[in-house]
Design brief:
The structure holds two protein chains of two kinds. By secondary structure, chain A is α/β, with parallel strands linked by helices. Chain A has two domains: about 220 residues, 3-Layer(aba) Sandwich (Rossmann fold), CATH 3.40.50; about 80 residues, Alpha-Beta Plaits (2-Layer Sandwich), CATH 3.30.70. Chain A contains ten helices and 14 strands. In chain A, helix 3 packs parallel to helix 5 and helix 4 runs antiparallel to helix 5. Chain B has one domain: 3-Layer(aba) Sandwich (Rossmann fold). Chain B is about 35% helix and about 25% strand. The chains are: A alpha/beta, B alpha/beta. At the A-B interface, helix 6, helix 8, strand 12 and helix 10 of A face helix 6 and helix 9 of B.
Chain lengths: ~300, ~240
């Protein structure tokens, strides 16, 4: 096991940030912590990177205990915090050199690991980090987290606020790093990114709702979901919310995902109801659950 | 139809030195429309939005927002629009009620009107129990819903939302969009940026900016047809990859 977490709890005064969290990450695995802001993801990262001590429970990273062996962990992991934490006044190259030096290595020594990312940064190597665009900052931060060839990589919301194109490129990079036998623990509020992980933990309010592969997680969704569409989205949502048999009503792109309380639900009944509410162009079709559906069902 | 346009933008341009951040964009937004303003990081969205809300002077072009010219009448624009920034902008160390009262005062509402508005708003948001608690202690989702309501306090013609749902949990994100639908249904125009492509589908029309220019503008349905893809994410990837 590359990361083991057993019964970790952490409170800040009266606020419980993490409550009895347990999970393991295998060597070379790409493991996702999926949850919104305030779920406790960053607290967990800080405990695993030895920057914070848990109130209860224990954890190991790369075989070392996070409390008694913290110094060894710091040499074996790379950490990219959610907030940009490089030196804004140093250039791209200076930042990278700095991080290589404090870990007792050189850019040349591990260049193969960062090459693919760094070539995109190279035209800007003399630019100060503070003057880079968001996507470039993110790439530089990843290079700095990788330059000492860590066994385990911690990425705290690396794609928050990043546009879909850069997000896609970033995940392609992670997949390539995984091939180089680096274990990756990554957190994200974007549910669509969950499908790109080997396994995920859904986390909300300091508790883990479920841990499994993305495929298994959606399989466990307890109900049949229907895509509902009509001429007016706002009126459709209002009508569905007012329908006495609804179990859940969630807008999903051009559709509303609808589930019904009844086991013998007939979509025709719903159509009749919606027509009576003056909606037209009504379409009701079966659809399959996504990670986001599952998350919302569990978080309800 | 021209008269129902609450935003009219014609060849609007903004240059920083020799860098063109916004390059001759042209579009209109109708009253009550939910208009999605998309683009990659650095495409020029924020710069364009700053010109429209009257806090950045364009280099050239024309724009009329809520009936006022961005060059000559920016102050009146500010009075007639609401704005919610992606950074939480209410006062953390004021209570929910105090924040509402403060912003109501800034917008020039009477004390009586502020009181009425505050109680309606607190009830609608289900914030009765925390009305006297500091805003800093609220969960992010509640803060965002409160910010949106505060941006609508003075019944603006248009509300500008800059990535209002970043990092918010999926249930709250949807409740937030229900609030947007409601506001639009009551005639408020909503101008919104987002990185969630499912949210782009909720918009009546969507524009996509690439390197300072608007490269696509239509309903989500027509954009998907035009690019021959199933969802807005793929539309975005096809366009912005260039």
């Amino acid at each position: 096991m590359s990361i083991t977490v057993s019964n970790i709890s952490k409170s800040y005064k009266s606020v419980k940030a993490l409550e009895n969290i347990s999970f393991n990450v295998k060597e070379g695995e790409l493991f996702g912590l999926i949850g919104p802001d305030g779920a406790g993801k960053t607290t967990l990262f800080r405990i695993l990177t030895t920057l914070l001590i848990a109130n209860e429970g224990s954890a190991t990273v790369a075989g070392f205990d996070v409390v008694s062996d913290y110094k060894k962990i710091r040499n074996s992991v790379g950490y990219m915090p959610g907030k940009f934490s490089l030196y804004q006044d140093l250039t791209v190259e200076e930042n990278l050199n700095f991080f290589a030096t404090i870990f007792g290595t050189t850019i040349e020594e591990n260049y193969d690991l960062i090459k693919e990312i760094y070539v995109q940064l190279e035209p800007f190597k003399d630019r100060r980090a503070g003057k880079l665009s968001g996507g470039m900052k993110q790439k530089l931060a990843l290079c700095c987290a990788l330059i000492h060839k860590p066994k385990v990589l911690f990425l705290d919301e690396p794609t928050t606020g990043v546009d879909p194109v850069s997000r896609k490129e970033f995940w392609e990079m992670l997949k390539r790093l995984q091939q180089k036998n680096i274990t990756i623990l990554v957190s994200t509020p974007y549910m669509d990114e969950a499908a790109l992980c080997d396994r995920i933990a859904l986390i909300q309010d300091g508790e883990i709702l479920q841990i499994d592969t993305p495929q298994e997680i959606v399989k466990h969704y307890p109900k049949q979901i229907y895509n509902v569409r009509a001429n007016n989205m706002y009126q459709l949502i209002s009508a569905l919310n007012a329908y006495e048999f609804n179990h859940s009503v969630y807008p999903f792109g051009e559709f509303v995902h609808y589930t019904d309380k009844r086991t013998d639900f007939n979509p025709e009944d719903l159509k009749v109801y919606l027509e009576a509410k003056n909606l037209s162009n009504i379409h009701i079709d079966k659809t399959v659950a996504t990670i986001e559906d599952t998350f919302m069902e569990l978080a309800k | 139809m021209k008269n129902s346009n609450v935003i009219q933008v014609d060849q609007l341009t903004k240059m920083f030195g020799d860098f063109t951040a916004v390059n001759a964009i042209t579009f209109n937004v109708e009253k009550g429309e939910i208009f999605g303003f998309l683009g990659a990081n650095g495409a020029g969205k924020t710069t364009a939005m700053k010109m429209l809300i009257g806090i950045s002077k364009p280099t050239s072009g024309k724009a009329n927002v809520a009936g006022f010219d961005v060059f000559t009448n920016a102050e009146n624009i500010k009075k007639n629009i609401g704005y919610m920034s992606q950074k939480f902008a209410l006062y953390d160390d004021l209570t929910v009620k105090e924040n509402i009262t403060f912003f109501g005062g800034i917008y020039g509402l009477t004390r009586k009107r502020i009181k009425e508005k505050a109680s309606i708003l607190i009830e609608e948001l289900g914030l009765e129990e925390v009305a006297n608690k500091l805003v800093g202690a609220l969960p992010l989702g509640w803060k965002q819903k409160l910010s949106f309501s505060v941006a609508l306090l003075h019944d603006p013609k248009i509300v500008f939302l800059d990535e209002p749902t970043g990092g918010v949990d999926p249930i709250t994100r949807r409740q937030f969009w229900e609030m947007i639908y409601k506001a639009a249904n009551q005639g408020t125009t909503v101008f919104v940026t987002t990185h969630y492509m499912d949210e782009a589908e909720y918009c009546d029309r969507v524009s996509i900016m690439v390197n300072g220019k608007i490269e696509a503008l239509d309903t989500p349905k027509k954009l998907k047809e035009q690019f021959n893809v199933d969802n807005m994410n793929d539309v975005f990837l096809k366009l912005a990859r260039g």
